[in-house]
Amino acid sequence: MNKRILLVLFVLFVTTACSGRFGELTRVDVQHVTPGEDNTGVDMITDADSIQTIRDVMKEIQWEDKNASMVRKADVRAVYYYEQEEDMPERLVEYDIWFTDKPVFAVIMSEEEGRRYGVLRPEHGGILRDMFVK
Questions:
Q1: What is the model's pTM?
Q2: pLDDT digits (tens, 9 = 90+) for 60-95
Q3: Do strands 42-45 and 76-83 pair parallel, antiparallel, or not at all (unpaired)?
Q4: Could you tell me which of 116, 94, 119, 95 has the C-alpha nearest to residue 105?
Q5: CATH number, residue 127
């Protein structure tokens, strides 16, 4: 009986720990921003390996709760879809992302509390750019 209770508690702990702050990331829509145009279409990322890579990269962002502005438009607008509970609407979190060269790193901005401005180091910024910029 005690083993079953421990097993249930362990499963609940792992499920909660892996679900993250907003729930389980299930999809990312990437809109490529082109100067002078509203958008250039949307790519949808749903495969498990890519979603896991995005999760891993997002953990590496160094976030600050400050407002910032950039001189140029973002390279990419990414909408992250988080499933919080089954049969409930997904939570959407929108990020504007700028990529730079030499070395490649990313600047990420959002409107969410506590995570308004973030920077990704070159080793992770390059991964995200390769996934998002075609």
A1: 0.75
A2: 998 888 888 888 889 999 999 999 888 888 899 999
A3: unpaired
A4: 119
A5: 2.60.40.4400
